[in-house]
Amino acid sequence: MATRQRKTTRVMEPINGQRENHNADADAIRREACKTVGQTECIATIIIILISYLTFPEPLQPVGRPSVLHVWYCGWISALSTGLGVLPLLFTPELNPFLTGASNAIAAGMMIAASYSLILEGCTFNEPDDVSEISSHLRTIIGVTLGIGFIHTTKSFLEKHEDLKVGTLAGADARRILLIIFVMTLHSFSEGVGIGVSFGGSNGIELGVFISASLAIHNVPEGLAVAIALLPRKLPCLTAALWCVMTSLPQPLMAVPAFLFCHYFIPILPVGLGFAGGAMAWVALFELLKEGIKDTSLLTATILSTISLGSMISIQGMMDDRS
User: Fold this and answer.
1) Contacts of 243 by beta carbon, 8 Å cutoff, 6+ apart
2) What is the average pLDDT across 138-160?
3) pTM higher than 0.85 for the full model?
4) Domain ranges of the chain
């Protein structure tokens, strides 16, 4: 009997040793990943500071027709404002499952409100330089259909790749984060076109600056929606802020060509608005709200998302009234 116990002990010792070695290797890999993420954060922050400094237009207020640099910088500032959405969550870095679900429900309401505004703007689109013979309603509906189909295809593609990573996240969390970031980035394309087109008219300076400032304010709650999805998954605040800014990078990138070729961009703008609106609505309903219901309850998630939706629409209505 004693001999059998000694044999069992000898068998268990290497198993325990292997488990300890495996845990040590996993910890080492995790530390190395965090180190790499930290280096990437520093490099990205330095690049943002350099771009902000080197592309600063002189003078800041253009005289006469705005230059390409002025259009770029207004789009750039609008994109950077998205990172401010992380600020409210600095005070609650640790979220339990219920708060995570509540945050997802609030983010869903924000995204549904943004989707509604985009689709409404596309349907009511009316510009003198719009030469398209297709009604803005039909173009917006086409965009919504394409947006939903595109996101559904993208989600199916992501689900086939189990090894996807976002920073230190992997698997289902990484796929969900990538989908949200992808949708918010698509949404920024239409906003960038809107900035560029607004600078192209006869009152381009005043209107362009106003539209850029409005989008900059509007981007803060959008950044909050992205940050709400990122921070509960243990990503650092700086990483979340950089991802928020990244989702809005199409704004300065699209503003410049839209400004230079305003006549050609205007007819497709309702399609872009509908595309972004449909994609955002899909993710809000079938990703964020679904997660919110799972972590809280149907009633709680519905109430929170409805309050968030109503608040965002009210804020957007106040901004429209002032314009």
Assistant:
1) 181, 226, 230, 235
2) 82
3) no
4) 1-54, 67-322
